User: What shape does this take?
Amino acid sequence: MATATFEPRRFRSAAAHYRAGRPDYAPLLIKRVVRLCGLSASSRVLDLGCGPGLLAVAFAPFAGEVVAMDPEPEMLARVAEQALPNVTPRQGSSYELGPELGQFRLTTMGRSFHWMDRADTLRRLDTLIEHGGAVALFSTHHPDVADNAWAEDFRSLRGRYAVDDQARARPPDWPGHEAVLLDSSFGHIEAAAVMERRRVAVASLVDRALSASGTSPERLGERIEAFTKEIMALAARHEVDGRLTEVVESRALVAFRPGEQAE
Assistant: This one.
């Protein structure tokens, strides 16, 4: 199974743009996962590949401790800025999952699992997740609705500027996350999704693009000005009062060991 080359500093220059640009996960979805996993004030959560802590911060009110783990110090600095007493930033990657981390009720991953050796990560997590605990993979998507008419052009634009980023390439036979989970100890999968209509500031589209690994400021270099101009021109065709409408679907794949999930 092909795995992207591990580049621990890949998101170094993207960190400053991530929180402002990336769509949040729907609060209702977070609450559904909390209930599904039976989180309580005594539960420990591991947010693996946490970035600036979107999921760590979202789960903090429902857990005793959240360990926010990422290889990028710039991302962890954004987590620390939140100053939440039960969120602990920790530098490290999926290759450094070990018993010294302790046991967890839930491990979350938001847009990060595809960068890992997925089978190895799940084997390591099998030793860290307590009986009845789960792995939850979060993502956001733009469904095919009229409000998202601009989104395909935005994806295409980003793709044109990221064509030299070979680490983003996936072979045709690359298995989806569901297949990898089914072949792991966490073979019982439950899916949840919440769809919301949102208004997004035009300026945040630039942050969204610059938060991606393939179009980060470091990777774009001198092309960043032209890239930004194209984004603003695209947005101008769709914006109303400096904002665009988008429909965002927040999804979670929640995977348990068979026979351990709550009834």
About this structure: The chain has one domain: 15-256.
